[in-house]
Structures are given as structure tokens and as C-alpha cells.
Amino acid sequence: MPWLTPVTATGPHWRMVHRGRLAHCQREWACQVCGEPAPPRALLAVDADGRCLTSAPMHPRCAKQATAACSHLSASALLLRAVTRDQIVVSGDLHPDLGETEQWRVPPAQPGLVPPWPDPHSLEERR
Ligand SMILES: [Zn+2]
Q: Which domain of life does the UniProt lineage start with (predicted)?
């Protein structure tokens, strides 16, 4: 189960994001799937305009797992982009206690465009 998925006594809430954990991922550059520190060059799921579906990085192996399990993530309109933190355009403010998190975007013209679902092992080697 993705680390960002809230879980209550009734079970996981698949359509929700745990804002406190998302803020942790954004502040600490941690993987949204497993919660562990992400590599300097990590993956983001973005639309054709470079907007992040969920503004937090993923390990290549975690992105592979997430896209295999989540039909929303494997939608053909989404791309996985391998980026470093300094390639991200940030809007919004990070105030986890107020439920505010950042929105991330990756400019489409930047090099590093990866077609949907790259081989995660090839990305691991480029770290
Ligand atoms: Zn991970």
C-alpha cells in the first residue's frame, strides 16, 4: 500500500492523500510509495503539460510497483519523468499543519523525458 494512502479503522482511502506524509515527502525528498529517502534523480508521474499527479518523488522500483497496481497511474496520458529536485517548478506553500502542500511541475521542454514506464533498472544505474 502506498505510504501516502490514509488508512483508518474502515480501511485504506485510495482516493485520498495523507497531507502530512505528502509534506514530509516534499520537504525531505522522500518516496511517496515507500516513505524512504528518494535518490537524487527520482521519478515523477506527470501529465503532458508536466504537472505532477502527486507532487512527490518515487524510486524507480516503487514507480514500477505503483503503476502495475494502480490503473489511474498507468493511464496512457501520464509519463514518468526522471528529475532532480532542482528541475522542479514549485507553486504553493508547504504548511502541513494547515493541510497545504506544494504543487510541482516539470517544464515539458527539459531533457530527460522518459516514455511511459521505463525499465526501472536502467534508471537505478544512472543515479
Ligand atoms: Zn520508494
A: Bacteria
- Asked if the structure places residue 87 within a domain, the reply is yes
The DSSP H or E segment spanning 105 is strand 103-105
Number of domains the chain contains: 1
Q: Ligand 1 centroid vs 62 CA: distance in angstroms?
A: 5
- Cα 93 to ligand 1 centroid, rounded to whole Å: 24
How far apart, in whole angstroms, are the C-alpha atoms of residue 40 and residue 124? 11
Which single residue is written with the C-alpha cell 509534506?
Answer: 23
pLDDT tens by residue, 1-25:
889 999 999 999 988 899 999 999 9
**Using 50, 70 and 90 to split pLDDT, how confident is the model at 79?**
confident
